Please model this.
Amino acid sequence: MLYRENGQFKTSYAADQQIFPIAQDRWAIFGLLVVAFIGVPLLVDEYLLRAILIPFLILSLAALGVNILVGFCGQITLGAGAFMAVGAYAAYNFHIRIEGLPLLVSLLLGGVTAAGVGIFFGIPSLRVRGLYLAVATLAAQFFTDWVFLRVPWFTGHASSGSVSVSNLQIMGWQIDTPVNKYLFCLMFLTVFALLAKNMTRCAVGRQWMAIRDMDVAAEVIGIRPLFAKLSAFAVSSFFVGTAGALWGFIHLASWEPAAFSVDRSFQLLFMVIIGGLGTIMGSFFGAAFIVILPIALNQFLPAFGALFGISISTAGVSHAELILFGGLIIFFLIKEPHGIARLWSTGKEKLRLWPFPH
Amino acid sequence: MSRQSGEIILDLKNVSLSFGGVKALTDISFDVREHEIRAIIGPNGAGKSSMLNVINGVYRPQKGEIILRGQHFSRMNPYKAARAGISRTFQNIALFKGMNVIDNLMTGRNLKIRSNLIQQAFWWGAARREELLHRAKVEEVIDFLEIQHIRKTPVGRLPYGLQKRVDLGRALAMEPSILLLDEPMAGMNVEEKQDMCRFILDVNDQFGTTIVLIEHDMAVVMDISDRVVVLDYGRKIGDGDPDAVRANPEVISAYLGASH
Ligand SMILES: Nc1ncnc2c1ncn2[C@@H]1O[C@H](COP(=O)(O)OP(=O)(O)OP(=O)(O)O)[C@@H](O)[C@H]1O
Ligand SMILES: [Mg+2]
Model:
């Protein structure tokens, strides 16, 4: 069947406002969900789950959060790692301090706490923008690094903030095997992606984008920058914080503040730039790209070098990775600010016209 | 023109505005009556745009006050102005470039949204109903402005004339009682100008919207406006119906002075 919207006439605005107005897209997403929920757990081995898929899911969630703030609301942040840390350590505190609190609630409360901290560090955005805001959010990064390293209360008096969780379960369902961890994260991501999509196609999403595109005009039609910006910080930090909690609890199981260093903040920012600013899809592309690239380079670069008689060390590979990231970011910022997601949608647009491009 | 103008709806008293040493407006007073089309004219840099920016609170005048339906504002701000039913278009189009036409117009419905963030996140209850309701309203504006064919186009890709029309659409989506238009026809060809004139007259006529219009094209101004204010170097040099203003010697000399 050709990829067409011909013959799919919308007879109501409700039909036109669906998330995927084209039927083929709906089927594709449905197929993808079936594969993700049923196919992958049956077919994929544990290494792949642990090393690629679980990090991909959690980082996609974090990238979604960063994209809401940077891509949709146009507020730069270099503090995503900090909000992940807040989410992880807050969830940890709820988990150990409140006897019998369900795991799900602890994780979500981690996100909520991150949202609160996000609002606080978002306040400068009402006054400054661009580089200055980047510096203000960077302050969040250094502040939380310091807090979790030096203030024992937040980390249950663990030395240098290293904590661990074990025996995680939800109503008797043990989240211990890689498959279960994968499914757990997948459920989170599916629900959160849906929430993000809904927000971005509703009034609040339009407020964010209006502030991003032309803040004076936004004010003139009655959008309050205060509410728009701080709600973007809150929602973004909630997503990022929840991702942080999952990263700590599910992916790592034991962690220290270094797991959420400034490197992580940059990595998340790279993801949304490469994947596509201001698109939900872009967050997934970016996360996939950044999770897979280092592994792919590790596998192939030495072999590739050997072809030409050059031996490439592990250090060489990780340098190559940085060079490649740097180059790609410059490329995308200059050539295609909407990232891989735009390449994807241009491709789809061509496909819609194919085979008669006129 | 035989339109019925009503009571004074907007009254500016002794407004002065300066930027550092530049006096953009000096002691300006004028009023706007309900349902009328009120033009502001003047040479470049006369302070016309500044005047609109004062009315809807983008600029804070150092002196003077604004009386809107009997209510005094010494400090207007854009949000209050929007709440009070003032909407506007911009001299340099200020659309939301990353959004399509529908979404741009939907932002104009912002003040009428009642559902909260949580309902919107779940596309649930009031949020869902509102999206449908406002979409229907926005489609009315789209039909009115005859831009059905571009409703899904990102505004950045539209030609200039259509962008101007979408800018008007976004202002109309607010269902304003006072509409401020900053050179809505600048840079348009004759046909586009005629369309725009027709839309402005129709808005005024069908919805009873009061219109404050800045325009350089004298023929247009004389043709469609009920009363005209003339500014020059931030001062008011003329005010009255088009014929009176045209005959005003000060106005004639300002325009002759500006033209060479
Ligand atoms: N934000 C601002 N900062 C500094 N000066 C300003 C600002 N806005 C306007 N001015 C100055 O105020 C004066 C009036 O400008 P304004 O834009 O109101 O003129 P105008 O009548 O709209 O002109 P035009 O026909 O060119 O649009 C000009 O001297 C301008 O340089
Ligand atoms: Mg102007």
